[in-house]
Specification:
Layout lengths: L1 E4 L4 E8 L10 E9 L1 H11 L4 E7 L1 H14 L3 E5 L5 E7 L5 E4 L8 H13 L6 E5 L10 H11 L3 E5 L2 H7 L6 E2 L3 H8 L6 H13 L5 E4 L5 E4 L4 E6 L10 H11 L4 H16 L17 E5 L11
Helix pairs in contact: 1-8, 3-4, 4-5, 6-7, 8-9
């Protein structure tokens, strides 16, 4: 079982437009709604690939009810924690070349009782041997050490804990020794204060994150693939994407594929890149299914060209 925790889920509305022009009246060519939030995306990707998963999330207001209805329609196993506030709605503007302009609401403010209930629900949802994945930004009012508490509680229950977050919550979770963290290049640079403009710099920064407490670091590098830094090895991989629909959610698919394949080593990185490549071919934040995931476009190799410059997203 892979249990995900999404402290700040959302309903994502995606609008396909011909081009983005500031100050102009734009026509929407098509639109759709998705249940979203990083942990929700991870669970939906796992569900679509026949992996056992459970999503834990707060929900409140009409949008929260709509979000849960979408999860039920997908057949996703979830645990919802009632909150007084309204689940946020995000808007993505997608251009024909795959460029996405995303507008995220901050989300509802959670009370201390609601935060405690969310943490308790997450820890009650796992059993020894499971993976527990804490994903995304914290909702307003949540303590910055929420993920650190999640890691401590998960380890006491005999589960491995992975975290995909950024900023102060990422910095605060490292001393708790998460089994895995998944920053992108920008987040890696931010948490270490080190430049991340080349493969070698990414390796050095990921190594610093391990020194700060993380047991393994999976770094998404946008167009340059992904980097895995573990205790005894450093591996870089890339995936060829023939048609880019939307980059939104690709990092979540990467995380899901990595955990689904065991959460460590070469095979897990190869699977992760295959899932991410498939997500890039999907519109909006829709996660790929097993039929859409291909590992034939993935290349894995030891890091040899550390001077290679990163191209970014």
């Amino acid at each position: 079982m892979i249990v995900t925790v999404t402290p700040n889920p959302s309903v994502d509305r995606t609008l396909a437009i011909r081009d983005l022009r500031r100050g102009a009246e734009l026509r929407c060519e098509r639109n759709w709604h998705d249940a979203s939030g990083k942990g929700v995306n991870v669970s939906l990707a796992l569900l679509g690939n026949a992996h056992q998963t459970r999503a834990v999330l707060p929900a409140g207001g009409p949008d929260g009810a709509g979000l849960l209805a979408m999860l039920e329609a997908e057949g996703l196993d979830y645990v919802s924690v009632p909150i007084r506030g309204e689940v946020r709605s995000n808007v993505s503007l997608v251009e024909p070349d795959g460029t996405v302009t995303k507008i995220n609401e901050p989300g509802p403010e959670l009370s201390s009782d609601e935060v405690d209930a969310l943490l308790r629900a997450a820890l009650e949802a796992v059993n020894p041997g499971d993976w527990l994945a804490g994903c995304g930004s914290l909702a307003p009012g949540m303590p910055v050490d929420f993920y650190a508490e999640l890691v401590d509680g998960g380890h006491r229950r005999g589960v491995k804990v992975g975290v995909d977050t950024s900023g102060p919550p990422l910095a605060r979770v490292l001393p708790a020794h998460p089994d895995l963290v998944k920053p992108n290049a920008e987040e890696l640079a931010d948490v270490t204060g080190m430049p991340v403009t080349s493969i070698g710099e990414a390796v050095a920064a990921a190594g610093r994150v391990r020194e700060l407490g993380a047991r393994a670091v999976l770094t998404s590098l946008g167009a340059d693939g992904a980097l895995l830094v573990e205790a005894t090895r450093v591996i870089h991989g890339e995936a060829v994407v023939d048609k880019l629909e939307s980059a939104v959610g690709a990092g979540d698919a990467l995380f899901a594929g990595f955990l689904a394949a065991g959460g460590a080593g070469v095979e897990a990185l190869a699977a992760a890149l295959g899932w991410a490549a498939a997500a890039l071919r999907q519109p909006g934040t829709r996660m790929p299914t097993a039929a859409e995931v291909s590992r034939g476009v993935v290349t894995i190799h030891d890091v040899v060209d550390r001077n290679r410059r990163l191209r970014g997203d």
